[in-house]
Amino acid sequence: MAIAAAVQGVGIAFWAEELVRPLIDAGKLVPLLDERCATFPGWFLCYQKQRHTSPAVHAFFDFLRHADAGQTRSGD
After folding, report:
1. What gap in Å lies between CA 41 and CA 31, rounded to an integer?
2. 5 close to 35: Cβ distance less than 8 angstroms
3. Phi, psi for 18 (deg, rounded to 5)
4. What pTM does this model have?
C-alpha cells in the first residue's frame, strides 16, 4: 500500500531498493535521502532459544540464509 500511495503521489515509502528500483527506473518514483539511508545489512532474527526448534523454523532460517547469498545473520 505504501508503494502504491507513493506512485499515486499521496505519500512516501521506505522500502528495499531492489523492490522499487523498476519504479525508479521508469520515472514513477524518485529516491529521497539517498545518501543518508543505510544499506540493508541483511536479516537479523531474534527468537527465544528453545531446546527443540521446529523443522519449519529451521527451514525458514535456511531460506533466509540462502536468500541473500551469505548476507543473512541468524541467532542459532
Report:
1. 19
2. no
3. -65, -20
4. 0.48
